[in-house]
Specification:
six-stranded antiparallel sheet
Length: 470
C-alpha cells in the first residue's frame, strides 16, 4: 500500500490561512447578526428611563430617550425622544437638540401608559380614582398595577389622572389602559420582572396598533402550523419520487433529464411558485371545489381564495426538489452489496426497499426535510399570493369541528416582519419589533432544524448499533 505524499505544495500555507480566514469571517458575521438581533430585539423590552427635560425656552418635555444623531454641518447633536400624547402634540416622537436642553431629571412619578386608542401617553401620575376613592403617589401606582392585572371587563369603574409635560390633565378610563410602567421608580430586579413580562406578552398576545404593538402569537402559530402541514405533504412525495428515480426507474437518458429538471426546479424564484399556486391551486382547484360543494356560499369563496392548504401545497411544491435531491443522494450512497445481500437471503424487492434501503437512507431523508423546513419557514413572496394575511381574526386551528380549518387565512412571521417594517404608520415604533420578530423567526427555524438533526443523529446511532451487533 502506497504511503501518502505529505510533502507540502508551494503555497499550501497561504491556502490554509485563506480557508481558515473565510471560516472565521463567516462565524464573525453570523455572531454579529445574532448579537444585533438579541441586543436590538430583546433590549426593546427592558424598561428605559423617562427623562423630564427643561429647555432653554422654558418648555417642558417628558419622554424616553431613543438615540442620538449629529446635526447637519457639525452644529452639534440631537436626541430622539418618545413623548407619546399623540392627541395633544400630533406626534409620538420628537427630536431635541442637546444644546437646547437646560436641565434633565428622572422623576419617580413619571409614567408611561399603553392604551387604546391614541397610542401611548407619558406624564406625571397625579391621582387614581377608583370606587370613589382617590389615591396618589406610591399607593396609586401599587393599586394601578393590581387593577391592570385583571381583565378589562372585570376592572372596577375608575380613571387615572395624568399631568403631561405641557401641564394638561388627562383623565384616562381604566378599561382603555393596556399596561403601565414607572421605570424611574423600579429597581434592577423589578426591571428584570417587567422585561420578562414584556417578552411573554410579545410571545403570547396578538398584534395591535397596525402591528407596531402587542405580540406575535398568531404569527408564531401560523408559521409552525404551515410548516407542519407542508412537511406532511412534501415528505412522502419527495421520498417516493427519489425511490423511483434511484431504485425503480431504468437509468437512461430520460431519467437523467428528469434529474436535471428536478435540480433546476430548486433554482426557480419563489414568486414563480406563488403565481403557480394562485392560478392552479387557488383559482383552479379551489374555484372548482367551491362550484361543486359550496355553491350556496358564492360569490364569496370558501376554497377559491388564499388559505392554509394552498400555502402549504405551494411551499411543498417549492421544497419538493430539495427533498428529492437529498433523499436520492442518500440512496445512492448505500452500497449495492446491501441490496444484493438482502435479495440473496430471499427478500423480495419490496422487502429489500422497506427493511434495508429505506432505514439506511432515513438520515438523508431527514436532511432533505431539514432543508425544506429552513427554506419554507422564511419564505414570504409566494405566501403573499396564496393565503397569508396581515391580521387573521380566526385561527386555522380551534375547538370547532373539523378543528383544522385549511381554508382559512393565517399569519406568518416572515410576512409579519415585512409588513411591520414597511407598511406601518410609525416606523420608529416598528424598528424594535422588527428585530424581535427576526430573532424569533431565526430561533424557530433553529429549533425545528435542531429537532430534525437530533432525530437524524439518533437514527444513525441506532443503525450503527444494529450493524455492529449483526
Amino acid at each position: 500500500m502506497k504511503r501518502l505524499d505529505r510533502r507540502r505544495w508551494p503555497g499550501d500555507a497561504l491556502w490554509t490561512w485563506l480557508c481558515a480566514g473565510c471560516v472565521a469571517l463567516s462565524l464573525f458575521m453570523l455572531l454579529t447578526l445574532l448579537t444585533l438581533l438579541v441586543a436590538r430585539g430583546l433590549g426593546h423590552f427592558w424598561p428605559a428611563p423617562l427623562e423630564a427635560l427643561t429647555l432653554h425656552s422654558g418648555e417642558q418635555v417628558i419622554g424616553q430617550p431613543v438615540r442620538e444623531a449629529p446635526l447637519p454641518r457639525g452644529a452639534g447633536s440631537e436626541r430622539l425622544y418618545f413623548t407619546g400624547n399623540r392627541e395633544l402634540s400630533g406626534a409620538d416622537w420628537r427630536w431635541v437638540a442637546l444644546d437646547d436642553i437646560a436641565a434633565i431629571n428622572r422623576p419617580d412619578d413619571a409614567i408611561r401608559l399603553e392604551r387604546s386608542p391614541w397610542g401611548d401617553v407619558t406624564g406625571h401620575l397625579t391621582a387614581l380614582d377608583v370606587d370613589g376613592e382617590r389615591l396618589t403617589g406610591a399607593p396609586a401606582r401599587a393599586r394601578l398595577e393590581r387593577l391592570l392585572a385583571l381583565p378589562a371587563e372585570q376592572r372596577p369603574r375608575g380613571e387615572l389622572i395624568l399631568t403631561t409635560a405641557e401641564g394638561a390633565a388627562l383623565e384616562q378610563p381604566l378599561e382603555t389602559i393596556t399596561s403601565f410602567m414607572a421605570p424611574n421608580a423600579l429597581s434592577t430586579l423589578e426591571k428584570a420582572g417587567v422585561w420578562s413580562q414584556g417578552v411573554w406578552r410579545f410571545l403570547s398576545e396578538g398584534p395591535r396598533a397596525a402591528n407596531t404593538g402587542g405580540g406575535v402569537w398568531p404569527a408564531i402559530f401560523g408559521t409552525l402550523l404551515m410548516v407542519i402541514v407542508m412537511s406532511v405533504i412534501v415528505t412522502p412525495f419527495g421520498v417516493l419520487a427519489a425511490i423511483y428515480l434511484n431504485e425503480i426507474a431504468h437509468q437512461n437518458r430520460l431519467t437523467r433529464l428528469v434529474r436535471i429538471g428536478v435540480r433546476n426546479l430548486a433554482g426557480v424564484p419563489s414568486i414563480v411558485y406563488g403565481v403557480f399556486g394562485l392560478g392552479v391551486f387557488v383559482y383552479g382547484i379551489g374555484g372548482s371545489i367551491d362550484t361543486w360543494f359550496f355553491d350556496e356560499a358564492l360569490p364569496s369563496p370558501t376554497f377559491g381564495t388564499g388559505g392554509l392548504l394552498w400555502a402549504s401545497l405551494t411551499l411543498a411544491l417549492l421544497t419538493l426538489p430539495v427533498v428529492i435531491v437529498a433523499t436520492e443522494e442518500g440512496l445512492a450512497r448505500i452500497p449495492d452489496a446491501q441490496r444484493e445481500g438482502a435479495l440473496a437471503l430471499g427478500a423480495t424487492r419490496l422487502e429489500m426497499l422497506t427493511r434495508v434501503v429505506l432505514p439506511m437512507a432515513t438520515p438523508a431523508m431527514l436532511t432533505g426535510v431539514i432543508l425544506a423546513v429552513a427554506r419554507a419557514a422564511g419564505e414570504v413572496a409566494p405566501l403573499m399570493l396564496v393565503g397569508v394575511a396581515k391580521l387573521a381574526p380566526q385561527m386555522p386551528l380551534d375547538g370547532e369541528f373539523p378543528y383544522l380549518h385549511l381554508e382559512r387565512k393565517f399569519m406568518h412571521l416572515g410576512y409579519h416582519l415585512f409588513d411591520t417594517a414597511f407598511h406601518g404608520d410609525d416606523v420608529e415604533a416598528a424598528i424594535p419589533l422588527v428585530y424581535a420578530t427576526a430573532l424569533l423567526l431565526v430561533l424557530i427555524v433553529l429549533v425545528l432544524n435542531l429537532t430534525a438533526i437530533f432525530l437524524r443523529h439518533h437514527l444513525r446511532r441506532q443503525q450503527g448499533g444494529s450493524w455492529s451487533r449483526s
